[in-house]
Amino acid sequence: MKKLWSGRFGKELDESVESFNASISFDCRLYKQDILGSIAHAKMLGVQGIITPEESQAIVEGLSGILLDIESGKVTFSEACEDIHMNIEALLTERIGEAGKKLHTARSRNDQVALDTRMYVKGAVDCLISQLTGLEEQVLDTAEKHLYSIMPGYTHMQAAQPVTLAHHLMAYFEMFKRDISRFGSCKKRTDEMPLGSGALAATTFPIDRAAVAKELGFAALTANSMDAVSDRDFAIEFVFCCALCMMHLSRFCEELVLWSSAEFSFVEMDEGYATGSSMMPQKKNPDVAELVRGKTGRTYGALIALLALMKSLPLCYNKDMQEDKEQLFDAHDTLSSCLHVFTGMLLTLKFNVNAMEKKALSSFSNATDCADYLCKRGVPFRDAHELTGRIVRHCIKAGKALAELSLEEYKGFSPRFDKDIFKALSLKNCIEGRDIPGGPAPSRVREHIQASRKYLASVK
Ligand code: ARG
Questions:
Q1: Model-level pTM?
Q2: Which residues, judged by CB distance below 6 Å to any ligand atom, belong to the binding site of ligand 1?
Q3: Which CATH class is domain 362-444?
Q4: What pLDDT, on a 0 to 100 scale, did the predictor assign at position 59?
């Protein structure tokens, strides 16, 4: 097969280099972006009189036919044509003849691949944001049902203070909300049209870059041709956004793995989202949650691979950059599939609210409330803390929860205790009392959920 650059060469590419050099096995995924970009380019070349209107039309029709044929599975790409750009160009010329050879006027694969990749990232961001809003709706629906479901909140994995399941879930809502916003801002920087940068120094042809940008729905033009062909920041940012979102999913999954253990029994996984063991008949394993947690690592790998890929590249385009795509696609696919199964898992999850509340009581999560009670009656907080610590020790020895001591026992520790201590220790009062913005009081969390529904409607 004759190469597009054969004029300069007297010898064929070594066979081993042909497949080593080729990217078609993975960049074929960019066929649609590549064709749409070429259609916009060809239309512009025609309007600008760089090629004739007839040639422009023949190219546009040829490319549209190729797009249809690829989508109906009629096209097989060839490794000899190296990448998606040259495969499409070769197909075009095969189909329409001479005019096909004019498509690449005033263009290089360097600005072409930058364009395709930016278009891909923009589309990927849209898909992921819509998946994330779907997950967020699920989180809100679940939280709304659990405004009064009391559970211990943890620090150092030790029961700390009572919260509600709704409040706990809304913490994840905030993480995913930041992910949505981060993807959105990544898209803004991706939304610059690089075509016209040529190989590196733009072109002497009187092209109309703005027209191409408009046709392809880009908000702006890249401002420097050398940067435009050598910049992959947008891809790195995108993969970073994926990695960070995976980290959030992974933390959620880690909690679900713990909570589904017999030791916690806070949740029960639906049988559709758990697996059995080949040896131990009693087992029900949270494989989905574990796999999401595990797959987080590969998105970190993709991010580090891209950063390392770019760190020593001189301006402008270098072939190293061909290595960006597999990482980019993999990070996108990984996050997308994880969001999909995670949302289903959450939808079918059963929360054992009784076990949660029991744990909140038996784990002294209301000890701070006991100290605060004394503090509100004039005992300096440090002394109240010390005294409550002694009460807890007493409870541990007696095998009782704080609320199970008698008033006499309390009075034995301090005369400031009165019968309203039991009210102060009731978990319901503990959470209702935390009635400040950002706190777990059900009225506050309800407000948070309402505001969040409005937010979701605004990003949809
Ligand atoms: N397949 C190449 C890539 O993915 C396209 C650009 C090639 N440009 C070049 N001058 N070899 O980066």
A1: 0.96
A2: 23, 27, 83, 109-110, 113, 317, 319, 321-322
A3: mainly alpha
A4: 98
